[in-house]
Amino acid sequence: MLVHIVDDNDTNLMLFEQIVRRVDAEVTIACYPDPLTALVDCSRQMADLVLLDYMMPGIDGHEYVRRMRAMPGARDVPIVMITAAADRFVRQTALELGVTDFLTKPVDPSEMRVRVTNLLALRRNHLRLRDQNRWLAEEVRHATRAVLEREEELIVRLAKAAEFRDPETGSHIVRMAHYSRLIACGLGLPDDLCQLIFKAAPMHDVGKLGTPDMILLKPGRLDDAEMEVMRRHPVIGHAILSGSSSHLIQLGAEIAITHHEKYDGTGYPYGIAGENIPISGRIVAVADVFDALTSRRPYKPAWEMERARLYVSDNIGLHFDPRCVEVFLAAWPEILDIRSRFADPVEPERSLV
Ligand SMILES: [Fe+2]
Ligand SMILES: [Fe+2]
User: Fold this and answer.
1) Relative to the alpha carbon of 237, which ligand is closest?
2) From ligand 1's centre to the CA of 10, what distance in Å?
3) Residue 78, preceding peptide bond in cis (omega within 30° of 0)
4) For the chain, what is the radius of gyration of the CA atoms?
5) Which example biological process does GO assign this protein (predicted)?
6) Rounded to the nearest whole angstrom, what is the distance from the C-alpha of residue 310 to the centroid of ligand 1?
7) CA 255 to ligand 1 center in whole angstroms
8) Which residue in 76, 181, 194, 261 is deepest, having the highest Cβ count within 10 Å?
9) 336 & 240 share domain
């Protein structure tokens, strides 16, 4: 604990120091005949108790209190003002400025001792409580982070579960998540939303968990009836993910239900168009289609990057939101980089049996 004694009278300084020392031999005491020096020191290291003379050359006790209370961390430090006379106006103003207590000159040593004892005890309790609150806040932060991490892990595992049944590879969901974040950032969406889109995008096809293998793994083109079944996966994905209180899973549900909508309204399941499609769905549509085109699938080889880039730009305003395509094309070097960083492993033909 640090006690500041501020008084232009040296005799008073010595007397007050002796009194405080007798209260608690452990406290550090700093005596200041000059209030401005005391304020400078206080701004460097906050005192735990201040005994303050009112009448001083330079600045008076009122001005001292005003300047000290404006310092960070000074709000709860007890200040005892020592006044020569029971001047009501001086005390009233001092109270309004934030003085905690008063002592009248000539100071009664036993009264000063009691007040200093009480105020130091109060200050100790206050500091203990503040530390406890900080500790609790830190604990809550840790616990919240742990919950969020577990939530993200579950989502990754859910996406992996879907992937086990789907010919789309794990690298597909990693790449399309990166493309999605790139587009989101290029559109100038807030950073936390870009991150959320990055984490939610891999959930776009979890609805395929509900698609029969004979359709999901069919090597050739799907007929109309099969296509009809395949087109249920956005609704199934939404049913799996909706109703969560987690922002991330809510966004996953939104992406699942909207990622096959098209900007011109010819997509599915609802055929909504333009800005009626949530931005997350419009972003993921570009990222998902582009990566599907450049990936090998049971029914087609992987397209060259240039051919897929042309497809995307040919579909501005048709399949895709023009603004999303614009930022996607502007980020072409980064797209190529993502593509090469997360390339599919070269592996033998996947067995469909
Ligand atoms: Fe899909
Ligand atoms: Fe996909």
Assistant:
1) 1
2) 83
3) no
4) 35
5) phosphorelay signal transduction system
6) 21
7) 10
8) 261
9) yes
